[in-house]
Amino acid sequence: MASNAQLGKIILLIAIVVFFYYFFWVAILPFMILDEGNPIRSLFPPLKYAFIVPTVFGVICLGGIAVFSFYHIWSFTKSTKRN
Length: 83
Hints:
- There is one protein chain.
- By secondary structure, this protein is mainly alpha-helical.
- The chain has two domains: about 1-35; about 45-80.
- The chain has helices at about 5-30, 50-80.
C-alpha cells in the first residue's frame, strides 16, 4: 500500500499529464498544419469531443456533489427531528 505522500504524487502526476494532453489537443493541435494521415493526429480524438467530454464530466461531478450534499442535508434534518 502506498503512503499518502506517494499517492498524492501519483495523482498530481496524472493530473499534470491529463492537463498537458488536453491543452495540446485544444490549444495547439488545431493550429498545426498537419494532414489527416499524420500519426500525431491519430493520438487525439476529433476536436468536437474536446468540449463535449469536459462538459459531461462536469455535469456528472456537479450532479454527484449535489446528490451527496442533498443526502447529507436530508439525513441531518431527519436526525434532528428525532431529537
